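=== RUN LOG ===
request id: a7f3
mode: sequence -> structure
chains: 1
length: 531
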Amino acid sequence: MHKRHIFTVILLLILPPLVHLNLHLSPSPSLTEMWQGYLPVLIAEGGEYSAEELDAIFTKQGWTDIISEASQKIEIFTYQGPKQIGYTQLDRLMEPSDPRYDRYLKSLKGYFRGNLDGKPAQVIYLGHVPDERSILEGTIQQLEDRGMDFFIPHLETGKNYLYQLFFLLNLCILSVMLPRRGRILLLVGGATMFTGALSLQLPLFIMLTAQLVGWAVCIEWAGTAFTRHFNIGYSLMRQDLKKRIALYVLFAASGSIVGISSGMYTGNGKIVLLCLNISAIHAGLLYLYYNITRRRVRRQQHPLFFPIPMGLRKGGMPVIVPKWGLIICTAVVIPAVFYWAVADRSVQDVTYPQPVQSGPAQDLEWDSISSFLKQKETALSLEAEINVENNLPDISDYIMHRAYQDSYIYGREYSFPYPGETVSLKVYEKQNSGIREQDRIFMIFTDDWYTDIITDASKNGVSRLLYAQNQPVSTAHRKIDTFRIPTHTFLGYVAIFLLGGPIVYSIIAVRKNKKGFAFEKNQHRKGQKVA
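=== RESULT ===
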């Protein structure tokens, strides 16, 4: 068997798995970039639903790990022993001046407070669960049906099927604009790209649309070039093929860069791999089309005739501009207008607790948290240290709180416990005719104590949220940009078509005229007729 046939068979066997691979390479937008493992939800206060009722709504929708003010439990000292109570019960059981009402307990409420356009809002943290997207859609529908004013940071905008519809619309319009030869190949190549568009959002739509236009540029040339090459010869075949591949790479790379720059996806590896995989599929389809054209021409009874222009046509661009305007309208204007129409402008000012990593990443070992605390104390200003109620507690504050509650009966101050630290009191014993004073150790902060405390931290409330970050982080109320996609993503998207498109199509128009004389020369050399 000829090597070309062997390679074709191998290619036919490889293409289906490559197309199926698009399903796994298609990235899903990240729901949140802030809290690892949790999705913050802000709900404006003043409604008819209590914190407990809100928890019940989320539980009914399928959320199993809910951190809210209603579900938060705390450990406090009592003279009957340590006691766990609900955080909402604290104000009823303790006066603000109670020494047990420590700094951690006073500032813990800040984790459940946010701001929506100047209105106070509750913040609830939902732990990621399987089938999260369908559960989230049901939750959003429930909140909307109940008339709640809510906001979910970094939730992607728009429905998947609308961007898929735009992609199919672009594919159909490009196929109509192209010559008859190669039109089927364009549709097949576009269909293979569509397998990677199941979670299609604007950044991924940008990438696939740009790569689709690059594919159309290649097919617009190949559809006629391959047929003429096998009928009358084409001396510039390799040179023009390299130019088309370069244009394809330009569009594919530009679309990928714009998609990555959106910041919607947690990792960029899948976007790059998806782009490369689609490029490999397109290369394989182009090679198959090349061989199919060769076989079809060999089965012809005589070489085909081709129309040859009698002179250079002037004013080629006006013919191209209407077509390019159609592409601009479908590929750029309609999706952009749709995006800006559905973008959430009802909320312009959003503030809620967000983690702030300071310094190099560390773990949650005792020494690491101690080092983190020293760095934080060095960075804090005197005003911030005095006004402690405005500072949100971190994992080191949680450990201080637990150490203080455990050693409260012995009079220990509220401070961070260091490994091996002892808690002692002076005791007086009668000895002979006098009284002897001595220090008696009542408590030692051992590794076992720390293991128990950090294990408890992973089970409940805010400490569980902090534990899930896998490293010590500070927390602060910060504002975020409510528009989901950065402006530079739109600018890059438009630039691909406004700047790159007309240049490409002007090159195509000029090359068509020059090729006509080359074909005519070759035909005359072979003694073939021209029309």
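=== NOTES ===
The longest strand covers residues 434-444.
The domain at 38-151 is CATH 3.30.70 (Alpha-Beta Plaits).
=== END ===
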